[in-house]
Design goal:
mainly alpha; 40% helix; 2 helices; two-stranded antiparallel ribbon
Amino acid sequence: MNIIYMLLAISVFVALIFFALFIYSVKKGQYDDTYTPSVRMLFEDELVKEDASRKNKTSNKTVTKPETEPVIAQE
């Protein structure tokens, strides 16, 4: 029975060490995303316009259309 208490104490100690190392790495910027902000402008987003109809709990979404229409093959 004593071994269970000792293993429990050791596992809690190891978990606290990993948690402390995780907090340390987050504060030092290890998990900061430096790639996505530089390519965000390359992605097309939907344009959302809010107007008076929002008061009625409805919103109008305007989706940008491509400059050229897709070509459909005719048989």
